[in-house]
Design brief:
By secondary structure, this protein is mainly α. It has helices at 2-23, 25-28, 66-102, 104-119, 122-133, 137-147, 150-163, 167-174, 179-215, 227-234, 243-270, 272-275; strands at residues 47-48, 54-55.
């Protein structure tokens, strides 16, 4: 129990650090993340300039402060991930409830659409759509949100199929409750637990997808700092300036690790079988 609590506290601390960086990047970043000082390019971590200013994580190939860019990059990654998960979760809940409750042609349409999306490599689909629509924060949110509903829909559908045969649903139907009341009053609350766990896990996946798109120059356009874009810039200098790619890579690793630790604990809390 103590070890499990230790992991959840570690995950919560990592998530909190990312949220604080995203919420108040200007308060934490020591320098302007887009300001270029070519005279101070490729400076190593803990380097001080002539004015005595400390570059904690060094500078990149254009003299920009890496710590400031990592802090500001947290906002881009977390905002995109959270909004995309909210959109995908909403669509997944709606499609899953509709497919599981109404069945018939509604179920067939939703499940065939899910099969098509599952048959396509998600990252390739996202790359194709972003390349066609043009890279921007709004485009990435829309693409990830609209195409990321499948996991939630399938789980909610399975849960709804089980619940619709329960006595409380039959009783509500016998008392004259309409489809809307049964869906939103009786079925929706009972499917929120699994959907919440999936949403928590999806946040980490969305961060990875956003970083992958930014790495391929399909993310937020320059000069907006993104973790994936910093990795792309730093890969050219791995042999001589390892810090360019190492620190944004660690930011991605630790943030996703924190999200997954919290999601795993959340799954244990919301699943009665695991809580025993």
């Amino acid at each position: 129990m103590g070890r499990a609590d230790g992991w959840i506290w570690l995950g919560a601390a990592l998530v909190l650090a990312g949220v604080v960086a995203a919420a108040a990047p200007r308060a934490l970043a020591p320098f302007d993340p887009v300001a270029q000082e070519t005279a101070q390019r490729l400076r190593p971590p803990l380097w001080r300039d002539a004015a005595g200013r400390l570059r904690v994580l060094g500078t990149d190939h254009l003299g920009r402060d890496i710590l400031s860019r990592v802090v500001h990059g947290a906002r881009v990654s977390l905002v995109i991930a959270l909004v995309a998960v909210a959109i995908a979760g909403t669509l997944g809940m709606a499609f899953g409830l509709g497919a599981g409750y109404f069945r018939g042609w509604v179920d067939d349409v939703v499940m065939r659409a899910a099969d098509v999306l599952l048959a396509l490599p998600f990252i390739l689909l996202a790359i194709a759509l972003v390349a066609v629509l043009g890279p921007s924060v709004g485009t990435i949110i829309g693409v990830l949100g609209v195409t990321g509903w499948v996991a939630t829909a399938r789980v909610v559908r399975a849960q709804t199929l089980s619940l619709r045969a329960r006595d409380f649903v039959a009783a509500a139907r016998g008392m004259g409750a309409g489809h809307g009341r049964i869906l939103f009053r009786h079925l929706l609350p009972n499917t929120l637990g699994p959907a919440t766990v999936i949403a928590a896990l999806e946040v980490g996946r969305m961060i990875l997808l956003e970083s992958a798109l930014s790495f391929l120059s399909l993310g937020a356009p320059p000069p907006t700092p993104t973790w994936g874009g910093m990795l792309a810039d730093g890969r050219v200098y791995l042999s001589g300036a390892w810090w360019l790619a190492t620190f944004p890579g660690l930011a991605i690793l630790l943030t996703v690790l924190g999200v997954n630790l919290v999601a795993d604990r959340l799954r244990e809390r919301l699943d009665p079988k695991l809580a025993l």
